[in-house]
Amino acid sequence: xxxxIDFYFDFSSPxxxxxxxVIEDFAAGVKAKVNWRPFLLGAAFKETGGKPLIEIxxxxxxxxxxxARSAAYYKVPFKLPSKFPANGLAAxxxxxxxxxxxxxxxxxxxxxVYRAYFAQDQDITDTDVIAAIGQQQGFTPEAVVVGSQDxxxxxxxxxxxxxxxxxxxxxxxxxxIGDEPFWGVDRLPMMEMWLATNGWRY
Amino acid sequence: xxxxIDFYFDFSSPxxxxxxxVIEDFAAGVKAKVNWRPFLLGAAFKETGGKPLIEIxxxxxxxxxxxARSAAYYKVPFKLPSKFPANGLAAxxxxxxxxxxxxxxxxxxxxxVYRAYFAQDQDITDTDVIAAIGQQQGFTPEAVVVGSQDxxxxxxxxxxxxxxxxxxxxxxxxxxIGDEPFWGVDRLPMMEMWLATNGWRY
Lengths: 202, 202
Prior knowledge:
Number of helices of chain A: 9
Order of helices and strands of chain A: EHEHHHHHHHEEH
Strand order of the largest sheet of chain A: 2-1-3-4
Largest sheet of chain A: 4 strands, mixed
Number of strands of chain A: 4
Strand content of chain A: 5-15%
Largest interface: A-B, 32 and 32 residues
Oligomer: homodimer
C-alpha cells in the first residue's frame, strides 16, 4: 500500500526548509508520496496568537542557534538570511502557478526558492528574484509574474491556507498522514514508526 | 572524558516525564553524568510570556495528542492526569530535601513522582502524596514534610529556577551540555551527535 504525506510549509520557515531538503528521501524510504502544500504561516498565527519564533523573548535566541544546529544535524547548508523572517506570499503564489503547469517543476522550484533564501541570502519577497528562479524551471519571468497574479492562483493559496488552519496547523513544517498531525521536522522518526505500524494505537 | 548533562525539568511537564524515563539509559550510552534539576517552569513563563501548552488555542489540542503519542513512541506508560497541569512546587522542594540526604534517592523519588502523576493519576500537589512517595525512599513522611519547609530548601529551588531562567531556559525538559542548550526530549539525537563529535561547529 502506498501512503500519502501532506507537507505544509512556509517559505520563511527554517525548519520547513530543512524538512523540504530531507522529505523526499524520507518518503522514498517509507514508500510514501508527498503532497507539497506551501501556505501562509502568518495567517495561522492570527488564529492561534502565535508569532515568528525570533520575536519571542529568550526562546527566539535559542531558536536562532537551533536553526543553524538543526541544519548541520540534517546536513543542509544554512545561513540566516539578512531579511528574516520574510513574507512567503510571492514564492507561494508562484509555486501554485508552476504547479498548475507541472507538479514536478513546482517541487524543483520550491527547493530552489529555499536554497536561494536560506543558503544564498537572496530576497524571496522580490518578484524579480522569484521570476528568475521560475525561469530556471523553464518558464519565462513574465509567465511566472503574470501567472502568480491570476485570481485562481491567489484563491488556491488562500484555500490551502484556510484548509491548513481548519486542520489544526499552527506551525511549520506540519505533516499529516491521513488525519494524524505531526508538527516539526523532528517528528520524522515518529512518522516513520507510525507508517511502519500502520498507525499504532496510543 | 566524562560529560555532564544538566537536566532541567518540571514535575508537571509530560515531555519532561518522558525525558526522565529515558535520560539515564541515554546518558549511559554516551558515557555522561546527569544532573537532575527540577525547577518551576511557571516562573520561566513569567519571563518569556509562555504558558502551559494546553492553554494555547489549537496548539493545545495537538499537544494533548502528541503527549500520549510521544509516550508510546518512547515506550513510557502515560495517562493524562485528571488535574493537569499541576503545580510542581511540593514535589520539587521534597526532591531537593531528599537530594540533601542522597542524590541517588532523589532521582528515585523523581521517577516515582512522575509515575504517580502521569501513570497513576495521583495528585502530586498534595503534600500527603509527596510524603508517601518520599516514604518509599526510606524517609518518614514527617521528615519529608518538615524538610521540604526548610528555608534552605526553599531557597535552593528558587536559586535553581533563577539560574535556569538566567541560562535561557523557557520550556521543559531543557538540557545543557556545557553551555550548549537543547530544548525538548526530541533533541536527544542531536545531543548524541553533539557529544560524539565533541561539539561540532555550525
